[in-house]
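Exercise 7. Given the encoded structure of a 277-residue chain, write a plausible sequence.
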């Protein structure tokens, strides 16, 4: 099957991700995957509209011809040293440069979610330690190098809101909704340790001062095995003297997300007051 001039993919090919896009950068030495295409390769969480755009965003450096072919969105861009890398055999923009390019396309909240995804890391005390794809410092540095780029105001605003430790865009939206409503910002990457000095619970977000653990239950929590694991997690949390607040997708919807009063009640039950007392 020919998907673009000079690019053929077997009809029943199972190629996905970078493997499916490699042919576009193999055409010559100047083509680079950028924007949404680079974001797809890095696995960034994109909102429904952008996430459904699977056109190939292909760029060449200034001074080269404009990419023109079927199913390709062409760009001619300026790249500074280190902003083009190779990943799984594909030339594409670095994680930080990809994030900056997305600033011209995404809302502030969605850009923060992508930033959170890129910088997310978990230490050895977590069941599955995770290394960041790039650092928050990388994001700040890339924004500083391109003061006149489209979307730079959104990028600068997002930098102050990106945090290490959010495992999903939904967890980012939960945190931002709470802060926007005037509630304290929850802590990420907090571990609840048991009486024997071993880690026992890993909340998605936490209020250590008030002993409140926030857990976002996505769609995968509907299965029976996960449901039973969630019950065990709840019992361990309570045994350690904490309150567990379970948040679902429906709690994050609408202009006045239900997660706000849900968490506010938990905080007030532990003595929190809006004046900070």
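Solution.
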């Amino acid at each position: 099957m020919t998907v673009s001039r000079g690019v053929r993919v077997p009809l029943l090919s199972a190629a996905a991700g970078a493997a499916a896009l490699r042919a576009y950068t193999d055409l010559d030495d100047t083509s680079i995957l950028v924007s949404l295409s680079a974001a797809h390769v890095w696995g960034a969480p994109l909102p429904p509209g952008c996430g459904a755009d699977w056109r190939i965003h292909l760029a060449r450096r200034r001074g080269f011809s404009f990419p023109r072919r079927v199913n390709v969105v062409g760009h001619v861009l300026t790249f500074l040293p280190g902003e083009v890398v190779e990943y799984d055999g594909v030339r594409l923009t670095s994680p930080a440069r990809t994030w900056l390019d997305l600033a011209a396309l995404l809302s502030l909240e969605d850009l923060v979610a992508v930033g959170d995804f890129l910088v997310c890391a978990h230490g050895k005390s977590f069941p599955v330690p995770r290394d960041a794809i790039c650092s928050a410092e990388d994001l700040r540095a890339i924004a500083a190098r391109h003061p006149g780029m489209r979307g730079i105001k959104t990028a600068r605003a997002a930098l102050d809101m990106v945090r290490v430790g959010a495992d999903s865009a939904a967890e980012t939206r939960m945190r931002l909704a709470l802060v926007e409503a005037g509630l304290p910002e929850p802590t990420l990457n907090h571990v609840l340790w048991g009486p024997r000095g071993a880690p026992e619970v890993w909340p998605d977000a936490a209020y250590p001062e008030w002993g409140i653990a926030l857990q976002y239950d996505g769609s995968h929590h509907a299965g029976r095995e996960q449901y039973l694991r969630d019950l065990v997690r709840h019992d361990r949390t309570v045994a350690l003297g904490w309150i567990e607040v379970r948040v679902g997708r429906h709690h994050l919807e609408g202009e006045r997300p239900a997660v706000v009063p849900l968490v506010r009640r938990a905080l007030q039950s532990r003595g929190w007051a809006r004046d900070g007392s």
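Remark. The first helix runs from residue 18 to 26. Students should compare their own answers with the one above.
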